[in-house]
Specification:
Keywords: Methyltransferase, Transferase. By secondary structure, this protein is an alpha/beta fold. It has nine helices and eight strands.
């Protein structure tokens, strides 16, 4: 299967660090899932756009349930890489992220999709409203990221022992998170309530905390942190 920008980035890191287990939340058509070249792959989606029974194998395990149910009732093993691409809302993604941290280890990577909206319309949590409003205002396109950008600030303010950066080119912006204490920790928003109330304009004023990094340098940085020789 032809790869996506997500699988390209994940594969480059997975190969370099020897990742063997992969978890994807929000599989949909499986364009990224099936293109990820990790030996053991687990996909979670309540509404797969293919018949998971026909695709299951020793390598591919599918759970047609919500991520909440998966983490609560199923998840037991640790994963080397977790890709979060579920609902485009801050609340659900934050919950998925907190749960994902519990099924990772010290050398794992968590990738969060859609963390920088392409415009003010794309930042609206409701997809239909985002697209219809863009069209009404004379815009074009169906780009939609929701308010997942708030995850950057939740991680920055409340997870000082996690480091992150955001890939800013060659595809959709994604934030990569790994376990490494950050120096000079200082919360900026101060509360989850303040973060939950952020707008697209607040994002623009705090874009420095996204740590935007070109893909080439981001992948090299992550590999240097997660490769076995660095541990």
């Amino acid at each position: 299967m032809e790869g996506t920008h997500s699988s390209r980035r994940i594969n480059a890191i997975a190969e370099a660090v020897g990742a063997k287990t992969y978890l994807e939340i929000g599989v949909a058509d499986g364009d990224t899932f099936f293109a990820v070249s990790v030996p053991s792959r687990t996909g979670v989606d309540p509404y797969f756009r293919f018949d998971p029974k026909l695709k299951e194998s020793k390598r591919n395990i599918f759970w047609p349930i919500t991520s909440d149910k998966y983490f609560m009732e199923v998840a037991k093993k640790k994963f080397d890489i977790v890709f979060l691409d579920g609902l485009h809302t801050f609340e659900q993604t934050f919950r998925d992220f907190c749960n994902a941290i519990l099924v990772t280890h010290d050398n794992s990577l968590v990738v969060i999709d859609d963390t920088i909206p392409s415009d003010i319309f794309s930042s609206v949590p409701d997809m239909d409203l985002a697209i219809s409003t863009r069209i009404r205002e004379g815009g074009v396109g169906a780009a939609w990221h929701g308010d997942i950008y708030k995850m950057i600030y939740a991680i920055h303010d409340f997870f000082p022992r996690l480091s992150y950066l955001t890939v800013s080119d060659n595809g959709n912006p994604q934030t990569f998170v790994w376990r490494e204490p950050r120096r000079y920790f200082s919360p900026r928003l101060g509360s989850l309530e303040a973060i939950s109330r952020m707008t697209w304009f607040d994002l623009q004023g705090n874009m420095d905390l996204a740590f935007l990094t070109p893909e080439k340098y981001a992948i090299a940085e992550i590999i240097s942190k997660l490769s076995p020789s660095s541990v």
